[in-house]
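Lab notebook, bench 4. The sequencing result for the construct came back, and we need a structural model before the next group meeting so we can plan mutations. Quick request posted to the team channel:

Model the 3D structure of this chain.
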Amino acid sequence: MKNKSIVSIILVLILAIVFIFNFTNEKNNNQVQIDNASKARSIESHKLENDKKSTVKEETDKKDFSDKNAVNKNTKDTNRNEAIAKEQDSINISSSTVTSVPWENDENFKKAQEKYGTHIMMCAYCAVLNDPLPGEEENVHVGAKLLCGTLVEPSKVFSQNRTIGPYIQSRGYKKGPTYEGSHLTETIGGGVCKIASTLYNVAIMGNLPIVERHAHCMPVSYVPYGQDATVCYGSLDFRFKNNTDSSILIWSQGIDNRLYIGFYGKSKPPKVEWHHQVLSSKKTSKVYKTNKSLSSNEEKLVVTGMDGAIIKSWITIENPDGTIQTKQLGESRYLPLPYIYERRS
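Done. Here's the predicted structure in token form:
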């Protein structure tokens, strides 16, 4: 009996030891799993943090690169615009809209205003020809006389070629300067593009739709880049439409190297403002021509050169209700106009 009790006690102790051993192993295993899970989470968290830092750095790098590109682009655009503006300043383009015109007290003008009821100046522009070449000023004056007094009725389209063309000697035109590709030549009527360019500026400032307009192949010195218009009878014309509900009276006059053109109707147009962006530019060069009448060391500047450029133009229109409307005018592409010098040989 005593032996059975001892055996029972031993069995209980063995079971207790086994239980304690299993419990300890299970606890250790659980702790290992917890530690492993914690390590895994730590590794994953560290990985996510690194990924996040990498993503942030990548996005920052992209943004920095994008910002640098934007800054570089803006800098280039600014430099191009400033270069063209500086060039135009050096040429001294003084053409602009005007409120005072030389025909204000002209009796024929007053009679025309009374006849058509066009008492309100819509817009007027004065184009100044810098150092006009032979025949240029004369042809502008001839064209201005033919243009003066033209009436454009509502919904009708004005055409320069139909109004003051053809540009032939029998109509009073002489030989004058003309652009042909990248060269300056002479043709009968050369110079009447000054009338087209001035009409273009008046029509734009009068908020009239342009039906046809062509830029010169090279820049001109009497209006800013993007504000010129060229014509060639039979192929290139300048045209605009009268979209107002009243007739438009055109009055024009050439005085020395100045050309004045004004539009008159029954109401004032909204405020219109030009805008230009230089998309690209190309430096000009020098061309030398022979003039045997010059001395051996003499050199004469005949034409002031201008850089070539691609110009994007648009206008903003401020309506009476305060709203602003933007109208795109497209691109004007100019080859460089070379400096032309004359020398003996």
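Residues 27-48 have pLDDT under 50 and may be disordered.
Will bring this to the meeting.
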